[in-house]
Amino acid sequence: MSGPWWREAVVYEVYVRSFADSDGDGVGDLEGVRSRLPHLVDLGVDALWLTPFYRSPMQDHGYDVAVYDDVDPLFGDLAGFDRLLADAHAAGLRVVVDVVPNHTSQEHAWFREALADPASPARARYVFRDGRGDEPPNNWRSVFGGPAWTRESPTGQWYLHLFDSSQPDLDWTNREVHDELLRVLRFWLDRGVDGFRIDVAHLLYKDPELADLPPGEYDDRRVGDRDEVLAVYEEWRRLLDSYDGDRMTVGEVFLFDVPRIARYVSGSRLHQAFNFTVMATPWGAAALRRTLETALQHFSPGTWVLSNHDLTRHVTRYGGGSLGRRRGLAVTALLLALPGSPYLYQGEELGLDEAEVPADRRQDPIFRRTAGAEAGRDGCRTPIPWEADAAGYGFTAGDPWLPFGADSAQLAADVQRRDPSSVLVAYQRLLATRRALLQEEPGDEVVFLELDEDLLGVRRGWLVAVLNTAGEAVQVELAGELLESSAPGAEAAGGVVTVPAAATVWLRS
Ligand code: NOJ
């Protein structure tokens, strides 16, 4: 394979709390991840991304970091992290860790100091402002609901938090903030991590005027996404380049305007940025084709994301149950045929649906901050069912922090491993065939085939992939050897391929 390892890597997101619990407290941990590495090797991914496992009061389940260079006891300790990293590397897997530069926890030493002593230098590392009378400095709303400002006493000033009030935003116009985050990156680079996933990478610099937004119109581009942030990533890139081994960054640039996302990966900035545009595209050949063409034009190549720990699981978005699983696998197979780096979210390889979580078990701050008006993200974060017949489905010996999804027994990993027609086995086969294609250096050129309106066909090297979005099987004139199909019933004979309903076939052609 040509180019650095990350260029076309399949990266698997481990939402640590819900992956595997080694100590029976109901919450996943690093030792649990280590015990399940064989699953990732068998699946055929290249890397794992670990969501935050740092010391945290867990108000946003770890995205509220109190200490950036230590492991929270809930998840293990630094020695356990080192063991996980060593085992992952020995198994041929790279490890990407999360970094959260936009905000700290309110329990971070800086913020405590900023509150305890308003004259301290720590105050200027956050965004404190006077209000307008008894009103906050502007009308910005938190992404999680409610105002983006909280008032503190005794000064009566307000601090900015684009997320929960327990997550005060840092002020990136203050050089001390840059230096501290560089120190944090060095800490983890020195331990041997292969890269960083950067939380809300586009929000660090705010509109300097902190101007009001039109009421009801939160818009990341008007709050952040400012050119100043690009210099931060140029500096981070210089740091990473000073290390050996192709260390990388992937930015969570939560925008949908592809040329604007592309700014983050141009020149010597980030190596990758998440591309959520496929996730936001409805099922349908024409819409998907437009989305793919735009992405392929602007990224060289980019990333593909259908699901993560913030989004409704794609099986549910595509209609739920067996229909959603079928469509989800079809789109996944299409994306895996393209140049770029697919990011998979734990449980999607099992075809998990969004789980029902009763109100009294909801944990997401979004649920609390909207007084239940928004359900929040718990339904995509429920624990992984590993073993159909084990207590706690092999996830935990205790009470899981969130309930399991309703289909856990049918969709458990051990059941699927034995079933050649399962979603899990389809992922394994597709990833293995993709790896074989990449060995032959197929290049980045993608040719779109001109097919009927329900179909979307692409050619990359010897691989041709055809997605059929119709409700019935379709025959296409195409010569080639049938390699894979995301659903049963595919055939290739006499220059004609039968593509089952809501399925993608792969041909060697
Ligand atoms: C994006 C993360 O993916 C999400 O889980 C988190 O709540 C917010 N950023 C705030 O850190």
Explain what the structure shows:
- This protein is α/β, with parallel strands linked by helices and 509 residues long.
- Among the domains are: 109-160, Oligo-1,6-glucosidase, domain 2 (Alpha-Beta Complex); 443-508, Golgi alpha-mannosidase II (Immunoglobulin-like, Sandwich).
- It is 27% helix and 17% strand.
- The chain is built from 15 helices and 21 strands.
- It has helices at 30-35, 37-43, 78-90, 109-116, 175-191, 220-223, 228-241, 258-262, 285-298, 314-317, 321-336, 365-369, 408-411, 413-417, 423-439; strands spanning 11-14, 47-50, 54-55, 67-71, 94-99, 128-129, 149-151, 158-160, 195-198, 248-251, 272-273, 303-305, 341-345, 447-449, 455-460, 463-468, 474-477, 481-485, 491-493, 496-499, 503-508.
- It has an 8-stranded parallel beta sheet, with helices on one face. The protein has a 5-stranded antiparallel beta sheet with strand order 14-15-16-21-18, covered by helices on one side.
- Strand 15 (455-460) and strand 16 (463-468) form a beta hairpin.
- Helix 5 (175-191) runs parallel beside helix 7.
- The protein is globular.
- Residues 60, 63, 100, 163, 199-200, 252, 309-310 line the site of 1-deoxynojirimycin.
- 1-deoxynojirimycin binds at residues 60, 63, 100, 163, 199-200, 252, 309-310.
